[in-house]
Amino acid sequence: MINFANAQYLLLLLLIPVFFVIQAVVLRFRRRRISKFGDEALVNQLMPSYAKAKVWVRLSMFSLGFFFFVIGLSRPQIGAKLKEHETKGAEIMIALDVSNSMLAEDYSPNRLERAKLAISRLVDKLREDRIGLIVFAGNSFVQLPITTDYVSAKMFLNSITTESVPVQGTAIGEAINTAVRSFSAQSEKSRAVIVITDGENHEDDPVEAAKQAAELGVRVFTIGVGSPEGKPIPMDGELLKDREGNIVVTRLDEQVLQDVAAAGNGVYVRAGNSEFGLNPIIDDIKKMEDEKYSSLVFEEFDEQFMYFLAIALLFFVIEMLVGDRRSKRHLFNR
Q1: How many other CB atoms sit within 10 Å of the CB of residue 156?
Q2: How many C-beta atoms surround the C-beta of residue 24 within 10 A?
Q3: What are phi and psi of 131, to 5 degrees?
Q4: What CA–CA distance (Å, rounded) separates 198 from 253?
Q5: How many helical (H) and strand (E) elements, i.e. helices and strands, does the chain have?
Q6: Is the separation of the CB atoms in 260 and 58 below 8 Å?
Q7: pLDDT given at position 302
Q8: Which pLDDT band, with edges at 50, 70 and 90, does 330 fall under?
Q9: Cα 178 from chain centroid?
């Protein structure tokens, strides 16, 4: 497999036909100028050292040199092979609540965006740990499977909105179950689920789900987002109202999140404006026994540009040595 690191330079190869067109035009104008002095054949006899054929030979040598020079600039690479790579660390599944209540502005700009910012900063600090992302509201699904591709993790994170899950609600228990099922087969010990939610209006039994996860060796941590006194929910430029026309106020339900963390052998942290709560949880997770993970990755490519540049230099030297005059030496003297 050949890969070009700077493939955009390959467009320069389109100039090669232009070289020949320009040379043909130049020779045509030359013939016109010569014809002004008299018969072309007679004028050519007066310049016996000029070799018209060598002009095309030189151009061909230059074009070949230019061809290999451009290939060299494009940095051809070979040697992409799959290689097994081993790392040590933990597997962390983050379950993020994307229900409408996460639009409340307890934090700047709101609960959801503040949580996404905290997760993004966490990803920047990870080294060999594997991370996955689950979004949930009335139901849940895996937004990003467990991975060490932190660039993709941040890309998927930026695309999350309250519309990522069409069914409204707060199914914390289902999110925990989805997270437990999403760990890799290689993971047995260092597995953790971090649930980020306001805990309000949960529709299932999250405590039982956390208890089952703990029995499987998965620790469940919870981060409470919001305030006990509550905040209204901005929706489409207005405040969300119930069927009776009353403004809906969403409040942090700390008790259920504390119960979930206790059942899941984890810790509950209430998110603050300066310290969101992920860092102390990650510090706790890092105390767990690291596990070895193996994955297939591409080896680095071997650079080949130097060979093409050397060939280009050879053709440029030949082009300079050819000249455009006839050789005075003959193979046989007469």
Answers
A1: 18
A2: 11
A3: -130, 145
A4: 6
A5: 10, 15
A6: no
A7: 74
A8: very low
A9: 25
- At residue 168, the pLDDT reads 87
Q: What is the pTM of this model?
A: 0.63
116, 276 contact by CB (below 8 A): no
Give the contacts of 222 (CB within 8 A, at least 6 positions apart).
194, 195, 196, 197, 199, 257, 258, 260, 261, 264, 266, 267, 268, 269
Does residue 16 register a pLDDT over 50?
Answer: yes
User: Would you place residue 129 in the very low, low, confident or very high pLDDT band (cuts 50, 70, 90)?
Assistant: confident
Look up residue 100 and give its amino acid: N
Reduced DSSP (H G I as helix, E B as strand, rest coil) percent helix, strand, coil of the chain, to 5: 45, 25, 35
Residue among 160, 113, 107 nearest 137 (CA):
160
Q: How confident is the model over 57-73, as pLDDT tens digits?
A: 889 999 999 999 999 99
Q: Identify any residues that bridge with 195 across adjacent strands, giving them in sequence order.
A: 95, 222
pLDDT digits (tens, 9 = 90+) for 186-219: 767 789 999 999 987 667 899 999 999 999 999 9
Residue spans of alpha helices (H) in the chain: 15-35, 40-46, 52-73, 111-125, 150-158, 172-181, 206-215, 254-263, 278-286, 305-322
Q: Specify whether the CB–CB gap between 99 and 137 falls below 8 A.
A: yes
- Structure token pair of residue 40: 């072309």
